[in-house]
Amino acid sequence: MKPFQNANRAAVAALLVGAALTVVILIVELAHVPPKPPRIAQVDLTRILREYQHDTAAMLARLPNDGDTTARALARTAAFGQRLDEAARRLSTQCGCVLLMREAVVAGQMPDLTPRLIELMSQQ
């Protein structure tokens, strides 16, 4: 063999080894990419509950104070809770985010999805 051929083979071998190591390093690095932090949005549940309480109080003031009225109010409240829960779950899925109560946000800005939550509740 000629010295020039040996040098070419050695260079090609070094390039191949270097390329293989680069691929291995890239694969290892890409496999250890930290997950993205969750998207977060806020909803004003206090406002929603306050509006519901106001509407319920107005309804109860118009109706007779008897067992039937109480039963209807309890059923209405249970249905409201289910609608709120289902709408919040649907909203979280739609936005791909974690929903926090507005009061839980101590600092920083995040989207307020309260209007969308109210809209979803009214669709049920």
Structure description:
- This protein is mainly alpha-helical.
- It has two domains: 1-33; 39-122, Skp domain (Protein Binding, DinI Protein, Chain A, 2-Layer Sandwich).
- The chain is built from four helices and two strands.
- The chain has helices spanning 3-31, 45-62, 67-95, 114-122; strands at 39-43, 97-101.
- A two-stranded parallel sheet has the order 1-2.
- The longest helix has 29 residues, at 3-31.
- The radius of gyration is 31 Å and the shape is rod-shaped.
- The mean pLDDT is 87.
Rg estimate, integer Å:
31 Å
How many domains comprise the coordinates?
2
**Given the C-alpha coordinates, what overall shape results?**
rod-shaped
Number of helices: 4
Structural class, by secondary structure, is mainly alpha
Strand order in the largest sheet: 1-2
| Name of the level-1 CATH class of the largest domain | Alpha Beta
